[in-house]
Amino acid sequence: MNALIVVAGATCDLGGRIISTLHRRGATVRALVRPETDQAKTDRLCRQGADVWRVEFTDHAALAQACQGASCVVSALAGLEQVIVQAQSQLLSAAVAARVPRFIPSDFASDYTLQAPGANRNFDLRRTFRARLDQAPIAATSILNGAFAEVLSYNIPLLNFRQQQVGYWEDADWRIDFTTKGDTAAFTAAAALDPATPRFLRIASFQPSPRELVALAEATDKGRFTLVRLGSRADLAAAIRRARAANPAGEQQLYADWQQMQYLLSMFSVQNPALDNARYPELTWTNPITFLTA
Asked: Which fold has domain 4-145+179-204+271-280?
């Protein structure tokens, strides 16, 4: 398969994984990077099989030329309003000008369509861009993967290996969507090469409840874990409001302390009711015990 896929946000972890997977699947990959991008990063992209184009997103003509001939543009951009709304809008405009038939936005997250506006700052930015995307003359597919499973290794309140504790809000049996970055990249690559994807695709490597997470953590031979109720969702929402008021500088930070709390609230607020994991039967999904052990 020699379809041309354009990937923006290529130097980030997820973007690089998507490029590597596309290359293994036989696609031609064009990676878009800023003109000032470090040479070591572009060299790494070349080793991953990408044709690297240095382009300024504010240069519409150059960006449209970079999208020329692509069957899909994939955005793995990460950032705040200037990136998720403005830069992605510039990328979208260029893709439309180049007559690219399909666009996959950087929506990799919990299903923000089911969460009320204002509950998650970063999701609100995706919602703003979605309104522009849905008005554009291009087919779009958002991939909603829940939380990246890698957060489970960060000793967050949900799973803290140092304290050997699993914390939860509201409901110990609430199932949480987790997808590894590797699984997300593999599914995204398959979707980019699939000309008939729907508007939304929902995936998860595994969906443990906090109660089940205790058993999974203990199965890694890291000792006994305690299940602790940390409050209700309303308690967590109130704590977020206090933390946000106390940290106005966080409005300019991608992962401010209160934004991290908003992600936790999202995990306990929305679920993927049905998964599209089986859409590409050649994919193998990560086992939770194997992942947590590693």
From this structure: Rossmann fold (3.40.50)
